[in-house]
Request: fold
Amino acid sequence: MKFASLLLLGLGLLVAQERDGNFSIRFEPTAVLQTGAPIPFRITVNDSAHKPLADAKVTLQIEMANHTHVKVFAAPALDARADPGAYIAKPVFEAAGEWSVYVEAHRQNGRSEEMSARTISFTVPQ
Reply:
């Protein structure tokens, strides 16, 4: 009986693991990059069938090239009915320089979670 319980627990953990969602993620700032102000980034996420992914949990992380000033920002949906698959995050860049912008999208798919991510480098001027 103990073996069967452990086997079922192990199978449950395997099913609940994260897997690649094969999502297409595109993002860009919609304002001029600068320090000290919220900069809106429009993020679009499509599923593997190239359809808008309206039910994702999306985050945007910024980090300087020297791995400092790391911050994560929520990216709520813009309008799931009028613009499905579109999200917005408003990071604040604290200093001028090279920044990595990392976007991650998660979707619950039954008992498993699918995830995809993309990173783009940006230069924030003085």
